Automatic annotation (TrEMBL):
Highest taxon above the source species: Bacteria
A cellular component annotation (GO) from this entry: plasma membrane
Topology of this chain in the membrane: Multi-pass membrane protein
Protein name according to UniProt: Probable membrane transporter protein
Localization, UniProt: Cell membrane; Membrane
Pfam families the UniProt entry points to: TauE (PF01925)
Transmembrane segments: 12-41, 53-74, 86-106, 112-131, 143-164, 184-206, 218-242, 254-272
Keywords, sorted A to Z: Cell membrane, Membrane, Transmembrane, Transmembrane helix
Family: Belongs to the 4-toluene sulfonate uptake permease (TSUP) (TC 2.A.102) family.
């Protein structure tokens, strides 16, 4: 296989991944990082990126990709009036603080840290969605403001390590505190916007000057990966948002749970193979 054929196959794979990412962003209120990170990881493996920078490069590039995807998804949900703006106002600063800490950790953490964080969170969320019942609630209302803020910082930290927009975590939290699934999904799209921008900037800084990065990378963000995935996500995110508002609550929960289960399996294989 010549170099041109390899490049074309890589481009097609990333464009298809971007299309799927956009739909997932709209349907589940996530930035699509749970699909983008493993796809980019495999793409970087295929192109010979060094082991020690492959995972943080996939995570950082995913956060950059999430920026336009989350913005478009959040706007689509906001037009339907489903976003809980009060929660977003409380979470904004703590989310960004958690992301900054996570980006700092990324400069020194081994690849296994990112994969384990992804697996643990995805398994917890998928169990809740697949087997949980409406009675699985902590309360019908959100807790006191300081506690809500603390939860936001944890969401930001874990999202920065996972390369996701925080949709899975924020959706879990909001449903446990009595928010309807459609409101939780729509609000999570807004969370993705707050996380992705400082997250991408943080990974650029965390990877700045690191050895063995590919020539197109700015820190831990791949410009080629960003350029190929983003256009497809922008086209398909509104389609996913429209689909989310047509699905029954339980169908949306099961779909999200199965999606996270598949991602968990993928990362378990990657982490322990």
């Amino acid at each position: 296989m010549d170099n041109m054929t390899q490049i074309l196959e890589l481009a097609v794979a990333l464009l298809l991944a971007g299309a799927v990412t956009g739909i997932l962003a709209g349907v589940f209120g996530v930035g699509g990082g749970a699909i983008t990170v493993p796809v980019l990881f495999e793409a970087f493996t295929f192109t010979g990126v060094a082991d020690e920078v492959r995972m943080p490069l996939a995570v950082g590039t995913s956060l950059a990709v999430i920026i336009p995807t989350s913005i478009r998804s959040a706007r689509a949900h906001a037009r339907r009036g489903a976003v809980d703006r009060d929660v977003l106002k409380i979470w904004a600063v703590p989310l960004m603080a958690g992301v900054i800490i996570g980006a700092g950790v990324a400069r020194y953490a081994p690849p296994l840290v990112f994969q384990i964080a992804f697996i643990i969170v995805a398994v917890i969320v998928s169990v809740k969605l697949l087997f949980g019942r409406q009675s699985w609630k902590i309360s019908d209302t959100m807790p006191a403001r300081p506690f809500v803020a603390a939860m936001g910082s944890v969401v930001g930290l874990l999202s920065a390590l996972m390369g996701v927009g925080g949709g899975s975590l924020s959706t879990l939290i909001l449903t446990l505190y009595g928010r309807p699934i459609h409101t939780a999904v729509a609000t999570s799209a807004g969370v993705g916007v707050i996380i992705s921008i400082p997250g991408a900037i943080g990974y650029v800084l965390a990877g700045w000057g690191q050895p063995n990065l590919p020539p197109d990378a700015i820190g831990y963000v791949s410009l080629i990966g960003f350029a190929l995935v983003v256009p497809a996500t922008l086209i398909t995110a509104p389609i996913g948002a429209a689909l989310a508002h047509q699905l029954p609550r339980r169908a949306l929960e099961i779909s999200f749970g199965l999606f996270l289960t598949l991602v968990s399996i993928r990362f378990i294989v990657a982490a322990f193979s």
